[in-house]
Please model this.
Amino acid sequence: MALPLNQLPKEIVREVRSRKWLALLLFAVVSFSVLAAGFVWPYKYQSEVVIFVDDRNIIQPLMEGRAVATEVSEKVSAARELLGTRSVLEGIATDTEIFGDSAANLPPEQLEERINGLKYSLSVAQRGDNYFSIGYSSSSALKTFRVAQKLGQAFIEENARRKREESRSAYDFIDKQVKSYEQQIGQVEERLKQFLSENVDGTESDANARLSNLQSRLELAQLEKEELETRAQSFERELSGVSRTLRQGRTVDAYQERINSMEEQLDSLRLRYHDTYPDIVILREQLEELRKQRARALEDQELSGGGGGNESVPNPVYQEVRSKLVTTSTDLETVETRISSIQRLIAEQKKRMERIQENKAQYSELTRDMEVNKEIYNDLLQRREKARVSMHLDIEGQGLSYKITEAAQYPTSPTGPKFSMFALAGLLLGAVAPFGAIAGLLQVDPRIRSREQLEDVLDIPVLEHLPEVRTPFEKRRDRKVTVAVIVMAVLVAAAYVAVALASVFGVI
Model:
């Protein structure tokens, strides 16, 4: 039955006074137990290395846009992951300077246990924007110092190695892609060259221009044909109204006039046409015939001694009109021949256009592949040069780098609770333990100890409370026991303090 809180201190004091020896025993047991725990407590020594992340050196503004420095977004997590790799931990676990000569020949089970211990004991903490610490804790101060020192060195070396490998891998990858695109561009150029050699029809714009030119020439030729047809019809109508011959006297002078007129026509035609031109051939034949007639007329006139009669002679107007008609007919035939040739060329050009349209898709695909590949190739060339410069930056230790600003220090005192804390806590807990134990016991004790418990719980009115009465003998005996307990408590406390001081000063 729970005791009311206002009665609890009084009952605790009464119970402690009634159980003095038990309280003394509990004080001694708790105090020396805490002191013993201080002796066997696994004290940890802590040592750490402070790393500075140098990402603002003079190289960065100089090489901005030309090189890419390796960056670490999460420095602490990246450092923890790097130090947690097996290669780093195994190198430290087998270090003979830290763990002795036997570390190089550890069995696999012990090696795994040591690696797990190193992984559990190391820590990485943020120390500002560009600083973080790598710490290690263990029960040995010397081991802690050496491992912390080795962890800092291993981190710097492993990070530098990884940066070099990363830059080298990036450069090799981009260089491989550049060579691959060089081969692709060469193959596309070869296919394009073969395509152009097999398809000599030219481009669509050239074919359109050629077709447009031929159609323009065809239209002009057709117009010229119509003009010539109209001119020929006009000459035919004019020719139908002119007589072929004229009646005139057969004198030598008449023949000479006709010869002179035809020679003028012949000279005029020779200025425009060759001697094989039909009108020229006809005029030459007529001139030859007129010369023969003039010669016969001249012989007859000499024989007869006088002039001859009238005769029929070719009409010069008729001859001239007929000559023009023949010329126009010849020009018309020439124009018709030219129209036929142009129409044939137009048909061939249309077939050429069809072939160009068929090859247009393939040509577009080849040129598109060429342009895309060249664009990517030029971009990769720039990236390769940036990767080359970045690789040299990492090899020479420029760009993002890590520097040890505070080396590992030898730990002179353990971290966490020290032995002096255990000693003070032992005395305090030993003194409080009896009172705490009795307080807990009173809360679970079912006996009724006060008047208020009867009135509140059982609802029974209490008329009177009789106090405890002790005889003088009991009072003297209780006083002697109290003195003995106090003396023993002082002796126990003195022994406790002596043991604690001896441990602190290194006596035990």
About this structure: Residues 57-73 have pLDDT under 50 and may be disordered.
